[in-house]
Amino acid sequence: MIARRPIAWASTQVVVAAVLLGVVLGNLSGARTRARFDWTSTGLHRLSPRTEQLLAHLDGRYEIVLAIDRAGVDRASYDAVIDLFSNLSRRSDHVGFRTVDVGQAGGRSQFEALVSRLRDRDRPAAIEQAGLLAASLDRLDRVGVQLADLRTRLETLAESVPTDRADAGAIRRFLQQAGALAGAQGQQTRSLAAEARPPLAPEGSELPDTPRLRDQLVPEFERLRTQVDTLATQLGRYASTDAMPEESRTIAGAMSRELTQMRDDLAAQTDLLRRLEAPPVFRVAAALEAGEACIVIGPPGAGLTAIDRQALFPPVQSLSGAGVAVAGEVARRAEDLVAIALTTLTSPSRPIVVFVHAEIEPLVLTSPSFEQLIEHARLRGLDVIEWATITRPEPPGIEAINPDALRPVVYLVISPNSVAPSPGQDPEMSGARRATRLAATLSALIERGESVLLSVNPSIFPTYGDTDPIAAVLAPFGLKALTGSPLVAQRATQRGLEPGTTLIARGTPGEHPLQRALRDLPTMLLWPIAIDVSPTPGVKTVDLLNVAGGDGLWMENQWIALWQVQAGATSPDVTFDPARDARRPTYTLAAAAERRTGGGPTQRVVLVGSNGWALDRVAQPRAAVDGRLVAVHPGNLELFDACVSWLAGADDEIARGVSGSGAPLIRPLDDTSLSRLRWLAIAGMPMLILLAGVVYRVVKG
Q1: Comparing C-alpha atoms, which of 148, 168, 151 is closest to residue 160?
Q2: Are 692 and 561 members of one domain?
Q3: Percentage of residues of the chain with pLDDT beyond 70
Q4: Count of CB atoms within 10 A of residue 45's CB?
Q5: CB–CB of 303/344 below 8 Å?
């Protein structure tokens, strides 16, 4: 008994030492490897495919600096953000991360050192821009002197008008007024130049605030250019009027040409100022001045950007009250924000999205229907423009936000309600006429080789035997939207079987970037329309969304009565009629196509068989599921993000994002899988019982 005690003690020591050694080796291995296994129900430590893809394509060193007062944020939110940023740093050698607690004295000094480092990094660029702005101010000075001289010459010219002319008084007043205008503009111009010079040479280590001065000078140059143009036009008309004195006409003509040259110089200077990009440190100036910031610093030449503090650390009371795990939701938001920041730095030429429609009133930017979508787009660095073709037939100018024409432009076309009558006495405002005019605009975009995403509505034209002019525009791509027969699904309700015009489509599996991003994601479509995809020489097409057919789903030919239910009409009795309607085993509801014409760049288009899929009430709703706040229809926002990136030629950015990767998915069963499950249910259990009996007999003999 006594001999056993040392043996037991030694065995215990060996076991404890082995366990400790295993723990140490496990921690060392975990610190040196990027492999992480996320067993949490909320997927707290699992990055989205889009973030993983972004990290894989990084080049150079990116540093995330979180400078914040730890006492001022929720502990669970702070820990979740720290874990996420640390995870990013572990996953990629190109990402670094550090924290600064500005609530401590040492942290404040570190933050001040960071601000100083960022200033010194961008000081050469700021000084160079200050030199360019100083040259612009010199130009303003010269224009002021020229205008003052012009005033003197105009006054002299007015005095030389012969007094024996009946209109001598009127001519003199005109020349004197022109001289007064030139003098006033000259004095104002010189005063502006004098006031703007001191900020270009700040005291101490401060940088010249070139973005603010640029934003101040651009409208002033534009205003001055307009005034000079007006004066040149007036003097030109005077010089071309035969009734005016010959000598004064010659002098006025020379002045008009001089002013025209001055106007062109001012226009060129204005364009140069618009092209000046703010040094990166000024993009985060507001965050730095606030004393707390989350800064993403790129390698030399890539710049830097800031993540909004309120967006990074949102209020948690509402999340907790809804039963949402705070850490998981905050981590997902933080991942989305840092992915956007890295994308902005790696791809500074962000797309411009132009919403094109033929509505009489503004539809997108001033409507609550797209408010969250617009915010979603702008958060990702996209500029959004609305083009109402009825009130403004000409394309909107984008030179101010795209002076170098380097940013890709994507047109999102929203089809009108072709059934709508004219709201007034003008027949040109009917839905059918507006659809025809929008089709002409869409055709012009396609002929110019623009990238277009077209969303279609049911169309009244096929009901009269005509071709839908909007759907016909994409015929050269092999895409045909069957807008004359939208899909109707029969559903069981408390009142019995009723027709429905809403479907949940799924992303089509495949290897195309869009297919990988949308695979199996549920996407809600209002008034869905089937699409025929035909092989076309020189065109590559791919299906994006589809839905399986069945007895309760068909293409309804007599849909107008059902459409008018939205306006309060009595619900019609709509049933499948094999004489006029059609069924298919599968319906394609969205497709993409690209072609190369004339050796030029590739043109891409996307056709979506629904017009309301991007509405906030369709794409934005979220629900709490098992402690996670997930999108109800995650495919809708993924469709928007992926299509904009693909149409802009940014294929490397296409991957499933945070909203899509966090959604719980139940994949639809195909016929093969369904057959296997049926056979397993029928024969699996009996075979298992027989196998168990055989094993029992073998063991027992």
Answers
A1: 168
A2: no
A3: 87
A4: 17
A5: no
Q: Measured in whole angstroms, how far is the alpha carbon of residue 383 from the centre of its chain?
A: 7
- In-domain check, residue 309: no
pTM, two decimal places: 0.76
Dihedral pair phi/psi, residue 2, rounded to 5°: -70, -35
Which of 234, 212, 274 lies closest to 401 in space, CA to CA? Answer: 274
Instruction: Note whether 249 and 180 are same-domain residues.
Output: yes
Rounded distance between C-alpha atoms, residue 609 and residue 356, angstroms: 17
Output the CA–CA distances (angstroms, integers) from residue 618 to 480, 525, 614, in the order listed: 25, 8, 7
Q: Residue 621's closest CA among 636, 638, 639, 610?
A: 636
CA geometry: angle 517, 379, 212, nearest 5 deg: 145
Answer whether residue 584 is part of any domain.
yes
CB 467 within 8 A of CB 457: no
Task: Count CB neighbours of 53 within 10 A.
Answer: 18
Residue whose structure tokens are 């590559």: 540
Is position 331 within any domain?
Answer: no
The total domain count for the chain is 3
- In the chain, the amino acid numbered 192 is L
Domain final residue, candidates 275, 292, 325: 275
C-alpha 379/C-alpha 309 separation (Å) is 14
The residue whose two tokens read 């069963």 is 669
Structure-model confidence comparison of residues 345 and 630, the more confident one: 345
- Confidence band of 39 (pLDDT split at 50, 70, 90): very low
State the residue range of the domain holding 694.
668-700
Token pair in block for residue 434: 């507006």
**Burial of 249 by CB count in 10 Å (0-12 exposed, 13-18 middle, 19+ buried)?**
middle
pLDDT in tens, 108-151: 888 888 888 888 888 888 888 888 888 888 888 888 888 888 88
What's the start-to-end Cα distance of the chain, in Å? 43
> Does residue 34 lie in a domain region?
no
Closest C-alpha to 76, from 331, 403, 288? 331
* 420/434 Cα distance (integer angstroms): 10
Token pair in block for residue 44: 């707290």
Predicted local distance difference test score (pLDDT) of residue 494: 67
User: Would you say 589 and 435 are in contact if contact means Cβ atoms under 8 Å apart?
Assistant: no
If we measure between CA atoms, which residue out of 357, 353, 420, 376 comes closest to residue 647? 353
Strands of the sheet containing 539-548, edge to edge, are 383-388, 352-357, 409-414, 451-455, 602-608, 586-596, 539-548, 502-507, 522-526
Q: Report the relative pairing of strands 487-493 and 628-631 from DSSP bridges.
A: unpaired
Query: Which two three-digit tokens encode residue 412?
Result: 């999102």
Once rounded to an integer, what is the mean pLDDT over residues 533-550?
93
- Give the model's pLDDT for residue 677: 67
- Mean pLDDT, residues 184-201 taken together: 85
Q: What rounded mean pLDDT belongs to the chain?
A: 83
Q: Are residues 540 and 644 in the same domain?
A: yes
The answer for residues whose C-beta is within 8 angstroms of residue 111's C-beta and 6 or more apart is 67, 100, 102, 291
Q: Are residues 591 and 681 in the same domain?
A: no
**662 pLDDT higher than 80:** no
Q: Which CATH number do you get for residue 443?
A: 3.40.50
Integer Cα distance of 347 and 352 in angstroms: 13
Q: Is the pLDDT of residue 482 over 90?
A: yes
Residue owning tokens 């012969």 = 162
H-type alpha helices, 60-201: 75-91, 105-159, 168-196
- Bridge partners of 622, per DSSP, are 631
**Cβ neighbours, 10 Å, residue 692:** 10
Question: Are the beta carbons of 508 and 518 closer than 8 angstroms?
Answer: yes
In three-state secondary structure terms, 506 is: strand
Per the CB < 8 A criterion, the answer to whether 613 and 526 are in contact is: yes
Residues 262 and 360 in one domain: no
